[in-house]
Design goal:
Elements: H1 14-20, H2 47-54, H3 69-82, E1 86-90, H4 93-104, E2 110-114, H5 119-128, E3 135-139, H6 144-152, E4 157-161, H7 173-182, E5 186-190, H8 195-198, E6 208-212, E7 226-230, H9 232-245, H10 251-261, H11 264-283, E8 288-292, H12 302-308, E9 315-320, H13 324-333, E10 338-339, E11 349-351, H14 363-368, E12 375-379, H15 385-396
Parallel strand pairs: 2-3, 2-4, 4-5, 5-6, 10-11
Antiparallel strand pairs: 1-7, 6-7, 8-9, 9-12, 11-12
The structure holds pyridoxal-5'-phosphate (PLP).
Pyridoxal-5'-phosphate (PLP) binds at residues 92-94, 118, 120, 161, 165, 190, 192-193, 212, 214-215, 224, 226.
Length: 399
Amino acid sequence: MPSADSKGLATKHASTIAAWGGEETPLAFGAAQVPIVQSAPFAYADVDGWLAAAQGRSEGHIYSRNTNPTVGVFEEKVRLLEGAEDATAFASGMAAISNTLFTFLRPGNRIVSTTDTYGGTSKIFLDFLPPMGIVVDLVDTEDADALEQSIRKGARIVYLETPSNPTLKLVDLRRAIAAAKAIGAISVVDNTFATPINQHPIQLGADLVLHSATKFLGGHDDAMGGVLAGRRELVRQVYHYREITGASLGAFAAYLLLRGLKTLDLRVRRQSETALAMARHLLAHPKVDAVFYPGLESHAGHAIAASQMSGFGGVLSFAIKGDFEAVKRCLNATKLAHRAASLGSVNTLIGIPGTTSHVECTPEERARLGIPETLVRYSCGIEAFEDLRDDLDMALQHV
Ligand SMILES: *Cc1c(COP(=O)(O)O)cnc(C)c1O
């Protein structure tokens, strides 16, 4: 639920919002930092006060599956960062995605999306929605004409994700959102890769924007979470679905996420700079076949990226010259990167689609999605570029 915003943060810069958003003083006990309110229910001095809070006539929390003060600060920061009317948080990114889809989709509805969505999301599209009588059309991510044509056939939801995982394909948000608007569909954008530092889907017309907060928003690989922001009337419906079905964010995770969020602007700017420098470096590397990064002029989606993003993000991928054994030798040799499944952390992370974004897919399915088996995904941390470059150069000598 949005709070008063007495500091006028809605018109301030992202770094100011991240530091102060939702922190209406005085905080409980006069604390200067947001307390972790680790309590399932909230107690009242008398029944009248309890009733007033339960009926929304006065401020107050009832039960942490519905709302929690620490979670509320995290939601308010994201709401302000995304320029949204409202925001609601979840236990994970997949909870945000599944709750949003299940709130609005009914048997007979149609949903239009792209082939390159996050692995878990595409599993919902392929395995869970069709048995519920929902028609799913997944269009080639880079075919803007086909996407527009499919949307024109009618849809309840148009679900977009850009840049995509792991080959960083771009979707033209303005065009797809305009097509969704024209038919009265709800447009949803997964903004996890771009972050609200580099991309503002709501300014581009989107109804809803969501995140795996586990990634850049939290930024420290120490907490799971998800968040949805956008038009109030829609967010309230998803909030209601979540408060009943229960995929709520816990107070401790919310505290870690909002602590991480305070440095979002600093981290993402550094990570985006490093990723661009690394992509340029790898482009000229003799052991590298192809580099996928929207900041490269040679990238198929560069023009779209430049028109809708203010930075190109902290994640890149590249294909190694050699076989899968060579990929393994390179990954095993890196010293300044965790071989781990996530992205967006202060520490650099390295992975292959078979163990990260597309672990659920067979090699044939990955081939069909145009994901080479020699692809390496590289999520830049906040380390110095020179040190990461030297580490990767050393590791690539093992190819
Ligand atoms: C990780 C990720 C998700 C899923 O989020 P979880 O927090 O792991 O549930 C969804 N979308 C994108 C783009 C992701 O990277």
